[in-house]
Amino acid sequence: MKKVIAVTEGDGVGPEVIREGIKILKVIEDYSELQFELREAPAGGGVWKEYGVSLPDKSFETIKNSDALLFGAIGIPGLPQGVAEIAILKIRQGLDLYVNLRPVKLYETLRDRCPLKEEYIGPGIDITFVRENTEGLYANIGGILKNEVAQNLMIYTRKGCERIISYAFEFAKQMNHQKITSVDKANVLKTSQLWRTIFHEIGEKYPSLKKEDYYIDSFCQWLIREPYKFQTVVLGNMFGDIASDEAAFLIGSLGMASSGNIHPNKVSMYEPIHGSAPDIAGKNIANPIGTILSVKLMLSISFAQNELGNEIEFAVEEALAEGRTVDIKNSTLKTLSTVEMGDLIAQKLKLRLKK
Ligand code: NAD
Ligand code: IPM
Ligand code: MN
């Protein structure tokens, strides 16, 4: 089976982590029926500097005509705010990728890197954030008038809320979760009041799932206090952006967290949740696991290859028991570069797939 994958390396550590993601795709090609044709779709700050746009039409065409997009990270310090980052929003809006799925799982082998004390880690952390990805503050990027007035509108529609909340309920059901958590700011925001109403309307169709609501401020505290209590967490665009970065550090590093920007059964985009990490770019020390686990999500979600996807995750866990990039280092294990971490995971995956 052949799949066309558009690839955006982007800026900063983007190309470094993408190289490792592609390494994993090559192993999959060698040991399965899947074949990949990779097509470059340049985007980001470097592209903006050269062409004055961060998402050239040609790149978007390539992406639209692919089976999925593997995306690195974009952003260069010193550029006008937002000119690089708008490329991501154009892809999410342009392809109507309304689901941003962000799993955050603390591997047993990485418990040593969780910043929480044992009593707060409890039985473990395994949360999936289902972030709305096209509405809220991101629906309208606002404007600034004469450097005096600035505005952004927070827009939620019934259709937008219904589709993301329904996706989250279905996800929770499929995962056999006992409960689903909705996060909002309904004590203040009208948009959240609509969101909460819709959450409970849809919830009536899922009598066996326990439903709970949190306000975002308090949720950020509970996320650290009792992270083991959350399973599926559905939330709006901006709240999801912020809470998922916080949660990513609980599993050891922002570099560990993967994501899928999904429109079910259409071209979807897979990327680590971190940015271009200019502070470590070009040093061959970035953690490639967020990207490699995004490849896992691509295989499971866009290509319906759950088993292969799971093998990637097992290979990651095995590799973490032997070596680590510096952000998750452990004094008793080898400290590895980006390339070495990718090599080790690729080697573990080969061994698993050979069996
Ligand atoms: P960042 O996520 O790039 O970095 C935050 C911190 O996490 C840094 O200390 C960084 O070194 C560390 N980190 C990130 N990825 C890592 C990895 N793979 N391995 C180890 N450590 C890692 O956030 P920032 O510094 O606020 O943003 C930098 C640029 O990236 C900005 O231009 C921002 O707009 C952009 N950004 C892009 C995306 C994206 O492309 N999807 C996402 C977030 C931020
Ligand atoms: C993310 C990023 C993006 C967002 C930015 C870079 C547009 O922070 O994917 O989490 O805000 O969604
Ligand atoms: Mn973010």
Write the layout of secondary structure elements.
Elements: E1 2-10, H1 14-31, E2 35-40, H2 45-51, H3 57-64, E3 68-73, H4 86-94, E4 99-105, H5 118-121, E5 126-132, E6 143-145, E7 149-151, H6 158-174, E8 179-184, H7 190-203, E9 210-215, H8 216-225, E10 232-235, H9 237-250, E11 258-262, E12 268-272, H10 289-302, H11 306-320, E13 323-324, E14 334-335, H12 338-354
Parallel strand pairs: 1-2, 1-3, 3-12, 5-10, 8-9, 8-10, 13-14
Antiparallel strand pairs: 4-5, 4-11, 6-7, 11-12
Helix pairs in contact: 1-10, 1-12, 6-7, 8-9, 10-11, 11-12
The chain binds nicotinamide-adenine-dinucleotide, 3-isopropylmalic acid and manganese (II) ion.
Residues 241, 245, 273 line the site of manganese (II) ion.
Brief sketch in words of this structure:
Helix content is 41%, strand content 20%.
Number of strands: 14
List of distinct ligands in this structure:
nicotinamide-adenine-dinucleotide, 3-isopropylmalic acid, manganese (II) ion
For CATH, the homologous superfamily of the largest domain is named as Isopropylmalate Dehydrogenase
Average pLDDT, all residues: 98
Number of continuous helical runs = 12
Spell out the helices and strands N to C.
EHEHHEHEHEEEHEHEHEHEEHHEEH
Strand content: 15-25%
How many separate domains make up the residues? 2
Radius of gyration over all CA atoms, rounded? 20 Å
Class computed from helices, strands and strand pairing: alpha/beta
* Low-pLDDT sequence parts: none
Helix content: 40-55%
Distance between the termini: 21 Å
What is the topology, as strand order, of the major beta sheet?
2-1-3-12-11-4-5-10-8-9
Characterize the largest beta sheet: strand count, sense, and whether it forms a barrel.
10 strands, mixed
Assembly status: single chain
CATH topology of the largest domain: Isopropylmalate Dehydrogenase
CATH architectural arrangement of the largest domain: 3-Layer(aba) Sandwich
CATH C-level class of the largest domain is Alpha Beta
Using the alpha-carbon principal axes, give the shape.
globular
